[in-house]
TrEMBL record:
This is Probable 6-phosphogluconolactonase. Pathway: Carbohydrate degradation; pentose phosphate pathway. PANTHER family: 6-PHOSPHOGLUCONOLACTONASE, 6-PHOSPHOGLUCONOLACTONASE 3, CHLOROPLASTIC. Pfam families: Glucosamine_iso (PF01182). It catalyses: 6-phospho-D-glucono-1,5-lactone + H2O = 6-phospho-D-gluconate + H(+). Belongs to the glucosamine/galactosamine-6-phosphate isomerase family. 6-phosphogluconolactonase subfamily. Residues 78-307 form the Glucosamine/galactosamine-6-phosphate isomerase domain. Its EC number is 3.1.1.31. InterPro entries: 6-phosphogluconolactonase_DevB, 6PGL, Glc/Gal-6P_isomerase, NagB/RpiA_transferase-like.
């Protein structure tokens, strides 16, 4: 389902309160659930704060307690420490799920998330993870050739996939010879075959594919995958994969998993770093009401949700 869409002109600081005058500036409310101080060492709240080893140095992280629906939130003092923890989380999950069902389905977004996966391609994980059991997919992809600098596949290949011994047949990228419409249909058909042959699990509740792990970033406007604020694609209820030709983030033509597929996941990790994401993150994780809903606020997996934040992204919580 793709239709005409006008990117919202308001930025996150001028979001409109629909219950009153349409031009009220958006003023974030104080979080009901937690407070985060900029200096992680001073965190002393509903949180569990600890030191862990990171490349020989001691690193700080703080775990924040949020309502169950918002998942487990961990704030790291640097992106480097975030990347170390993200690699351990992914490798541990891979080991656990491979033992249970002898395979592991992993979905990647594009953007800075991919760089934060770099530690997986280093010792100990490059040797300890059973890469032959991995099947890799994309939650969204730009409709460009695979060797184009905008390609999410190329980004993942350069940072990560080229450095691990994953069978090439287990890397499920889109068909870049097709139009956006056809690439979305083709990807959906391939997912259906892989559900049928049980490579991908299926949600008993929704009937949508149930991936073991989705690793996703979030844009500064609160978008996830290629589902943008105010765009009709966030309403899609039937399709597994949709296309967009008017993406506000270039390039304009993309394909994306729909929200029902995203939310049927067994595990979602949302990885958010940098001060440019702080306002959207505040909206997503606190109890802000009466604003236009951001796509990231609609993430509610059947399974577990884990947030990996750096302290810049968490600075407004
Ligand atoms: O292809 C894409 O553009 C992405 O999949 C997109 O959803 C991305 O993950 C976010 O925009 C965050 O990107 P950054 O972390 O680079 O801001």
């Amino acid at each position: 389902m793709a239709s005409s869409y006008h990117a919202p002109s308001a930025n996150l600081h001028t979001l409109v309160n629909p219950s009153s005058s349409r031009s009220l500036p958006y003023i974030p409310s104080t979080s009901r659930f937690f407070t985060v101080k900029h200096d992680l060492s001073s965190l002393n709240l509903n949180s569990h704060s600890e030191k862990f080893k990171c490349g020989g140095a001691r690193a700080s992280m703080a775990e924040i307690v949020t309502p169950k629906s918002k998942g487990k939130v961990t704030v790291f003092d640097t992106e480097e420490h975030l990347a170390v923890s993200l690699a351990k989380y992914t490798a541990d999950l891979s080991n656990k799920i491979c033992q249970e069902r002898n395979s592991f389905t992993v979905v990647l977004s594009g953007g800075s998330l991919v760089k934060s996966l770099r530690k997986l391609a280093e010792p100990p994980y490059v040797d300890s993870v059973d890469w032959s059991k991995w099947n890799v997919f994309w939650v969204d992809e730009r409709v460009v050739p695979k060797d184009h600098p905008d390609s999410n596949y190329l980004l993942a290949y350069n940072v990560f996939l080229s450095k691990i011994p994953i069978p090439p047949g287990n890397v499920h990228s889109i068909n870049d010879a097709l139009s956006a419409e056809n690439a979305a249909d083709d990807y959906e058909t391939r997912l259906k075959q892989l559900v049928k042959n049980k490579t991908i699990d299926q949600s008993e509740t929704t009937g949508f594919p149930k991936f073991d792990l989705m690793l996703m970033g979030m844009g500064p406007d609160g978008h996830i995958a290629s589902l943008f604020p105010g765009h009709p694609l966030i309403q899609e209820k039937e399709k597994w994969v949709c296309f967009i030709k008017d993406s506000p983030k270039p390039p304009s033509e993309r394909i994306s998993f729909t929200l029902p597929v995203i939310n049927s996941s067994a595990n979602i990790a949302l990885v958010v770093a940098g001060s440019g994401k702080a306002t959207a993150l505040h909206i997503a994780l606190s109890d802000v009401s009466n604003i236009d809903v951001l796509p990231v606020q609609l993430v509610a997996p059947e399974g577990e949700l884990a947030w990996f934040l750096d302290k810049e992204a968490a600075s407004k919580l």
